[in-house]
Amino acid sequence: MRYPQMLKPLFYIVLLNALWVNTFAQDTLPKISVKHKQGKVIVGWANPFSDVVLINIQRSADSLKNFKTILSVADPGAVTNGFLDGKAPNLKQFYRLYVQREGGKYFFTDPLKPTPDTAKPKPKTPPAAEKTTAPKTAAPPPVDPAPTKPIQTQNGSGGEVSDPRNPNFKPEKNSSQKVKFSNTKSPEANNNKVAQAPVREMKPPPVYIFVNSIGQVIVITPEDKKNLYTVKFVTESSGQPALTLAKIKDSHITLDKTNFHSSGWYKCEIYENEKYRSNLRVFIPKD
Questions:
Q1: Which residue has the higher pLDDT, 130 or 80?
Q2: Is residue 22 within a helix (H) or strand (E), and if so which, with residue range?
Q3: Is residue 7 part of a domain?
Q4: Which of 32, 44, 168, 277 has the fewest CB within 10 Å, making it most exposed?
């Protein structure tokens, strides 16, 4: 089928846009990418939403159940984000994200198992050699076979370096007043290497607090640190205390939303040995 001459540019523009969306939409929430390289797992995603308030990274050996939160993302609203799991038990784990938005809306991404990262850096293309054409004039006179390095001599008084073949030659001096010649170059002059930014491994916080799909508040603390943590829930709008869990004994606690005065945002203040550590936010939905 032939298109009219004026419609061909429009057809190409639509086709390029479709290819661009298919290429870059694969890791945009609610889709994520999970790759492994050198025994480490990298979870990456792009965030198109402007109202994301919480992102938890979860891991499980099963694709359907037993998911545990291993990290709460420090900046859930970032457009592009990722996590390097350098302590994965193996490369057969499944990963997913729990994403919570304003108003209590949330969703889970599909669980994915890491696939090999086969991306390779593009080789640098050497600059094209300039084409030169031989002059059609007569051959130049023979060149003096003498070496190009200046001949170093010293006069009797000043001890300066000179070149008897070139009376206008002037050596350069560096900061230490040592003579150096203009035709000498340091072998490292053109070896400018750009250092790669180190990959920082994100460590999970000591306490996880989030709201599950039925509105219950889940509190998870380290199993080896019982009776150390205290969590205080404070109503964010009024600043009034709502609930306090003192010296938590169980590593996994489920709180029904009836324990809170009303729906809305609550600030969770975390204390370790009665010393303030950090705070989180949770949203209690309506019935």
A1: 80
A2: helix 8-24
A3: no
A4: 168
